[in-house]
Write a structure and sequence with these properties.
Strand order of the largest sheet: 2-3-1-4
Distance between the termini: 12 Å
CATH class: Alpha Beta
Helix content: 25-40%
Order of helices and strands: EHEEHHE
Number of helices: 3
Shape: globular
Strand content: 25-35%
Number of domains: 1
CATH topology: Alpha-Beta Plaits
CATH architecture: 2-Layer Sandwich
Length: 95
């Protein structure tokens, strides 16, 4: 099985971090249960930003998630007001 990671880096001010964490928690299990090829989701927190690392079986499934209703209509809508800058989205394949 190929492994692919979708990394989304979010710039979120300290006062909005708890709210962003709540969005992560709310959608973690629906992501794992309903998104094809998803096998993990981790929240990485640093002083300068927050990263959400999503594990997938293929690049195609990672790209499909970015177009999914869960991502566009739920996650993005709830996170957008909390962001200080546009998210940085990257997809990596494990060599």
């Amino acid at each position: 099985m190929t492994k692919t990671y979708l990394e989304i880096t979010l710039t979120i001010n300290a006062e909005n971090r708890a709210s962003a964490g709540a969005v992560y928690t709310k959608y973690k299990q629906p992501f794992l249960n309903n998104i094809q090829g998803a096998f993990s989701k981790e929240l990485l927190v640093r002083d300068e930003d927050v990263q959400v690392l999503h594990g997938f079986d293929t690049v195609e499934n990672a790209n499909a998630y970015l177009k999914s209703e869960l991502f566009k209509n739920d996650v993005v809508k709830q996170l957008s007001p909390l962001l200080s800058a546009n998210p940085d989205v990257k997809i990596y394949s494990v060599a």
